Predict the structure.
Amino acid sequence: MDDLVGRFPLIEDMKNGKEVFWLNPGLDNRLPEEMTTADIADASARLARFAPYIMRAFPETVPSGGIIESPLKDIPEMKTFLEEKSGGTLSGRLLLKCDSELPISGSIKARGGIYEVLCFAEKVALESGLLKSGGDYAALDEDRFRELFSRYAVSVGSTGNLGLSIGIMSARLGFRVTVHMSADARQWKKDLLRQKGAKVAEYRGDFQMAVAEGRRQAEGDPRCHFVDDENSRALFLGYAVAAERLERQLAGMGITVDGGHPLFVYLPCGVGGGPGGVTFGLKHVFGEHVHCFFAEPVQSPCMLLGILTGRHDGICVQDIGLSGKTSADGLAVGRPSKLVGRLVGNLLDGLFTVSDSRMEELVRILYAKEGVFVEPSATAGFPGFSTVQQRGNYRERFSPASMERSVHIVWATGGSMVPEEERKKYLAEP
Ligand SMILES: *Cc1c(COP(=O)(O)O)cnc(C)c1O
């Protein structure tokens, strides 16, 4: 590599595995032109069309009318803890967006992953003539549709949560689905997928190999849809729909977002689709009044590296000597998405990194203080809440009065699918 550290001194700390906090000089709030409000509205309408089917196939979604959505909770005890830890007063209201409790697959992937499978199912069903535009989507749960879908396949490479979402949804519809995993993926995820009717292909090499093999197999089969986590518009738009739902939840809690009431959102980032899609949606809804931050593990800050250097997927964390390894499932990504940094790089207030031990500790503290269990990746956002208020050069962008009225959302991206035995391990003191 050429003299990256000379041009981007922050990389020195990143190389050394230190926690860093980067404010984005490229923030300009200009929305990208390749994707629009109409695209988000289209995704939202598609999810609404499928709601009668989702309700029938997954009865746990009956209370929400077949809409896959998660609670937004006040976490005052956690706020008190973070204040004590930071040694000062932290302004504003702290909320947890509990995507860890999303129905069907228990992580943020239940937004994008399920949406992408539904797009494929709708296309196949309409083209077959079995489903008419404007028809009753609940019928997709009948044998004639399962028979139709069994002639098609879905394939994805994933170490975990994306595989669960794609696998569970595809198998329920009747698609032949293969999840390509590296051998070191967690055993319980493989077991669960097989139990739900998905095929799990294991590869001894690393995860990139598993993805490449999945892609290769799908390319040879015109009836196979490959879910491309690094490059998918459908995934991205599925995540983006979260924003209009969040707007309604905030309004329901009497929370205003405007110039005098800023909203801060802290999102764990892996390849970038999840946090990128949510950010894209939020900027459409709240414009410059929402302030989005991505959080990454110290060993895999791929999005920070891509945006900071402007090289996006042309650089990976191994290029600066990092391992890319982390105990935070979902965030162990060495190279960012081809799409996301380019679409939302100018919409982020900043990015920061978090050590594994801090995420693991926050799992235990969140459980102790609020009784909420999440997996380690889901806690990556918490340090943002303290840091934005303690960094003078950031905090001074806001008046003390508006900071007083601010609302902060930590996006808890996964956890409810983690089996009891595994939870105990996470919750045990080291
Ligand atoms: C996938 C995932 C993320 C990050 O989403 P990306 O689209 O990979 O950036 C964060 N947390 C959890 C629990 C995940 O499974």
